[in-house]
Amino acid sequence: MTVASWGLYGVLLHTGQLHMSAGGGDATVARYKAFLFVGLAYFLTAVLAPLGLLMLKGEAFTAYNARGMGWSLVAGTAGAIGAFGVLLAFGARGTPPVVMSIIFAGAPIVNAVVSLLLHPPAEGWRGMNVKFLAGIVLAAVGAYMVVKFKPNPAPAKPPAVATQAAAPGGAR
Q1: Is 24 helix (H, G, I), strand (E, B) or coil?
Q2: 3-state secondary structure of 123
């Protein structure tokens, strides 16, 4: 479910952004409008849905752990900043295949490095599995290869020219 939804995220967000600026609107404003609707979607799925589920279980308004709330807010903020970063990348002429390839190869690397710093390996740094390190390098190389060797999109089709056939006698 996560792979499918996040795999579609960039393409769908880019499409929404393009439609927000349809008709020659300001591209920056279009990104903000698209981000607004991303926020609305988060509110519907990440606020209202869990609130309803918690209410069904009778847990909606019981005690919350302050540290858990704080870390969850930080995580949500990081996710929202990431979503905005995707839109900024599109604004800098990034395309969904390139932007999302960099994100999906880079995010596991960041996750691995931060996780290792916060929770060092039990066997020590020297005992780290070479295959793990190779995986990090391969993720970076894979992102580079996707960006470097991506297929080019088909050229845009010229707009159709409307032709009107003249009726006999010059009447239309």
Answers
A1: coil
A2: coil
Give the span between the Cα atoms of 166 and 27, in whole angstroms.
41
Query: What's the pTM value of the predicted model, to 2 decimals?
Result: 0.74
Let me know if 167 is exposed, middle or buried by CB neighbors in 10 A (0-12, 13-18, 19+).
exposed
CA dist., res. 116 & res. 75, Å (int): 18
The per-residue pLDDT string of the chain (172 residues; one tens digit each, 9 = 90 and over) reads 888 898 899 999 999 999 998 877 888 899 999 999 999 999 999 999 999 999 999 887 778 899 999 999 999 999 999 999 999 999 998 888 889 888 988 898 899 889 888 888 888 878 788 898 898 899 889 888 888 888 877 787 777 765 555 555 555 5
Concatenate the DSSP letters of all residues of 147-167 into one string: HHTPPPPPPPPPPPPP--PPP
State the Cα–Cα distance between residues 161 and 2, nearest whole angstrom. 44
Could you tell me how many helices (H) and strands (E) the chain has, helices first? 6, 0
